[in-house]
Design a protein that fits this description.
binds arginine; aminoacyl-trna synthetase; four-stranded parallel sheet; globular; about 650 residues; Isoleucyl-tRNA Synthetase, Domain 1; Gyrase A, domain 2; single chain; alpha/beta
């Protein structure tokens, strides 16, 4: 049972007397868990804004609302505090009954949804044959957590890995393969060699492009400076002129940065004899690589053959990472899969008058947007946009999708806004399209995260490093092991240590991606990620292992959990019980706006509640046998919820640590 949802729905029924039907839900949502336990378990803050709307006194309104609410089967009589807060406290006997029910429920109180939806979760989506980076890892971790949680709730989920397997990187790789291949290296490790070729072609091409752009960038900067000087000379004091001047100054800053970064690239290339030499011999490399892509798309037999050779190797390498992360996909339908449908998409857009030609390209112009959504370039090439439109058509047709979630970097916000708008214009208004966006992972230097070696992290090595770092903690911890007032824990054997290091290392990486508000950037730090105390996976994993240790020792002492009745006597016990009862609320909050951090913060509070309970309430030392059995049960139940919650997040637990 979801207590919060029940309270909100009872409030909603009463609130219809005080506001319009479309606003009821919004005011009912103002019933929330209390911030401070002194004010009860839940608090409703709706009386103040409602009273304002209705021109009433808020305390009077609160009194009226309470008078109409029937909560006696759930709560103690409601109390009004301050300007009109309504404080609610769940009846102890009711709470105890709920917790006992959760205990007997394999789903731990979380009901499946009454009307399952068909939901596509589009996540991971790395660009194959390029090294996968931490951004794709974040998508993978967040996407998999959402995927598992929706399934747990009973939705019909299709997880789909929209691989970038048809993009311009293949042109670079094809060009590299034909010109710079190291055959021996390719035989040894095809994927590494392809990644090297990609980087090589990309660097040379970037260098040449930067070099060619220097005069233009310098001219842009000068012209921006001239315009600032002209505006300053005019010395207009009105607001509009000041704003225009400010904008011009920003243009100077941007132009300065652009020029600087191009100069930096050129300097780096100039300093590297290999790059300089290749640039000289392959001066048209960018165009040549584009031509290779075009040939591939046009069906050129050699390029298709090579593509068919590259792809399986790349997918095998990706699968190794997915296996380690415990992630699986129902579908792996990459961009190449949609190639046959692209022409049709553009035709349809033209027929419906949505796409029109502009500078030779086919564009969808959307209201209030400076740039159009380009669905076919002047050279005839289709785009990322065309592919995503074709993908939506397919998902609607094939899976009758009610919702499609795109777990993708927030730098693609514009793309998804335009994609969704175009889809609506095409008449597909029923499907719920969501960009579940996330921010950038930053290094401790404040720049996007890179390894010490300086290049964007190869994910395999990142995972290995996490496990090595975690192993240090596991080894250190053996000495400092707490004894939980009882037997000291036995030393862990080698196999257990390795397993714990793996769980802590990978769990730590995942937790870091999950527990930050997904929309914010965060700083990647091993020490924070693997800390034993604080809001980390390690802390939760220890809390779980601690519950298991207590139960093992109890069993060894002949006290099994059995079918004792759970009783909540002391405040710390009740507090933990309330938390246990709130597991369904945490799950509902997480899927409401696809925010895994709401589940991690719930688990963190639960682990803290457990710790306070264990400090305040004796378990094995409790003389009353019934109470002892009840407390053991509470220990067991807490452990099961932590395990279930972490499992939904994709974080493994260990029985001993
Ligand atoms: N391959 C894309 C990238 O790396 C992500 C794909 C996301 N999914 C989608 N349907 N566009 O940026």
């Amino acid at each position: 049972m979801n207590i919060l949802a029940e309270l909100q729905s009872r409030f909603a029924r009463v609130l219809t007397d005080y506001t319009t039907p479309d606003q009821v839900a919004q005011f009912a949502a103002m019933v929330r868990p209390a911030q401070d336990a002194r004010f009860g378990d839940y608090q409703a803050n709706c009386a103040m804004p409602l009273a304002k709307q209705a021109g009433m006194n808020p305390r009077d309104l609160a009194t009226q609302i309470i008078g109409k609410l029937d909560l006696s089967d759930l709560c103690h009589p409601a109390e009004i505090a301050g300007p009109g807060f309504i404080n609610l406290k769940v009846r102890d006997d009711v709470l105890q009954a709920i917790v006992n029910k959760v205990d007997g429920d394999p789903r731990l109180g979380v009901e499946t949804v009454p009307t399952p939806r068909s939901i596509i979760v589009d996540f991971s989506g790395p660009n194959v044959a390029k090294p996968m980076h931490v951004g794709h890892l974040r998508s993978t971790v967040i996407g998999a957590a959402i995927d598992r949680t929706l399934r747990f709730l009973g939705h019909n989920v299709v997880s789909d890995n929209h691989l970038g397997d048809w993009g311009t990187q293949f042109g670079m790789i094809l060009y590299g393969y034909k010109n710079f291949l190291d055959q021996a290296a390719y035989q040894k490790n095809a994927v590494d060699e392809l990644a090297r070729l990609y980087r090589l072609v990309n660097t040379v091409s970037d260098y040449l492009t930067a070099k060619a752009s220097l005069p233009r960038l310098a001219a842009d900067l000068n012209s921006a400076k001239d315009r600032v000087a002209a505006a300053e000379a005019e010395n207009a004091k009105d607001k509009a002129a000041q704003a225009a001047l400010k904008k011009l100054r920003t243009e100077v800053t941007v132009a300065t940065d652009d020029l600087k970064s191009a100069e930096k690239k050129v300097a780096a290339g100039d300093a590297d004899p290999v790059i300089r030499d290749l640039a000289e011999k392959h001066s048209n490399i960018a165009r040549a690589a584009r031509d290779e892509t075009a040939k591939l798309h046009a069906g050129d037999s050699e390029n298709r053959k090579l593509w068919n050779e590259f792809l399986p190797a790349c997918i095998t390498a990706l699968n190794k990472i997915y296996d380690r992360l415990g992630v699986r996909f129902d579908k792996v339908l990459g961009e190449s899969f949609y190639d046959p449908f692209l022409e049709e998409v553009v035709k349809d857009l033209k027929a419906k008058g949505l796409a029109r030609e502009s500078d030779g390209a086919q564009c969808v112009f959307l209201d209030g947007r400076a740039a159009p959504f380009i669905v076919q370039k002047a050279d005839g090439a289709f785009t990322y946009a065309t592919t995503d439109l074709a993908t939506i058509n397919y998902r609607l047709r094939q899976f009758q999708a009610d919702a499609i979630l795109y777990v993708v970097d927030d730098r693609q916000s514009d793309h998804f806004e335009m994609l969704f708008e175009t889809t609506r214009l095409l008449g597909n208004t029923a499907v719920d399209l969501r960009h579940v966006k996330f921010g950038t992972v930053m290094g401790e230097d404040g720049k996007p995260f890179k390894t010490r070696a300086g290049d964007t992290v190869g994910l395999e090595s990142l995972l290995d490093e996490a496990i090595r770092e975690a192993r240090k903690i596991v080894d250190e911890n053996d000495d400092a092991k707490r004894d939980d007032n009882e037997q000291p824990a036995p030393e862990l054997d080698e196999a257990t240590r390795a397993a714990v290091a793996e769980a802590v290392g990978l769990g730590g990486i995942k937790y870091a991606d999950l527990h930050h508000n997904r929309e914010s950037d965060y700083i990647f730090s091993w020490s924070k990620m693997l800390a034993k105390t604080g809001d980390t996976a390690t802390y939760m994993q220890y809390a779980y292992a601690r519950t298991r240790g207590i139960l093992r020792r109890a069993e060894a002492a002949g006290t099994a959990v059995g079918d004792a009745e759970l009783v909540l006597t002391l405040p710390a016990e009740r507090h933990l019980g309330l938390h246990i009862a709130r597991f369904p609320e945490a799950i509902a909050a997480m899927v409401n706006d696809y925010r895994p951090n709401l589940l991690t913060s719930y688990l963190f509070d639960l682990a803290n509640g457990f710790s306070s309970f264990y400090d305040a309430c004796p378990v094995m030392k409790e003389p009353d046998a019934k109470l002892r059995a009840s407390r053991l049960k509470l220990v067991d139940l807490t452990g099961r919820i932590i395990r279930q919650g972490l499992e939904l997040l994709g974080i493994p637990v260990c029985e001993r640590m």
